[in-house]
């Protein structure tokens, strides 16, 4: 059965989601929402850079898109700077009977123990009222530190610590608000960016730690532990999102840690550079400019590195693609899932069925 899908936004992730929906044999693109008035009326194929029209024109008319009664919305709009407004949007879609797969807010990847129970009850009630499901995922938080990590633990005899790392050069990552305001790159070292305010790291990536704990049957100490290290620029750097003058923040290492009886058991860790030559003492990818690495201490000791890059060689572009496609390829499973919020622990194996080149 072909599922009718609306794509919600056409930005750095959304444009790849449109291409993915178009390529998927079991999905039909029936609508596209945009926030930019200049994009209204443009064909989805043009907005996705496909070089051909898809016969679906973009609109900013929310009611008109919901009136199409799609089976699902692939929601890839920016949510990092409007978390609770975005959650309200997602609730309204589900309440209207439309299943949703979304790249954010990432806290919804596994919000138990993070969001207020009243908000979780609202999501559950919306699912029951609309008979629809909501799934938030991507690559990180998402596949690189939920399904991948938990699959590896199935090989363990004893687990002492599970550590999920992102090691990446963000110099070609185009998200000015994220890079400047949220991470703080290019800002004075005595300024505190949004990401490093107390509790923000645990809200942003605590869902990863808590979901892994749930998958492993662990009861974690409260609260989660936050650690970070900032590095100043040793010279001027230029990225596609922000200029980084010498002496301002240029690199960031952070950890969100789940402990049991005061011992680190699950660690989400990021090493973020804005130039590949920075911080040579930090871990580096074996292949390319960025990777995800899972290390499991115990018996046996295990490590796996997952790297990706686009056909043009850029890992930040492919990062947007894998985020989009984790959502697109999950649509059918989410449509079939029980109503309400569903996590990676609730879904069956998601594959790229139907996408092999013909």
Automatic annotation (TrEMBL):
SUPFAM superfamilies: NAD(P)-binding Rossmann-fold domains. InterPro entries: DAP_DH_C, NAD(P)-bd_dom_sf. Keywords: Kinase, Transferase. Residues 144-351 form the 2,4-diaminopentanoate dehydrogenase C-terminal domain. The keyword Iron-sulfur does not apply. GO terms for molecular function: kinase activity. The keyword Ribosomal protein does not apply. Transmembrane segments: none annotated. This is Diacylglycerol kinase. It comes from Gordonia polyisoprenivorans.
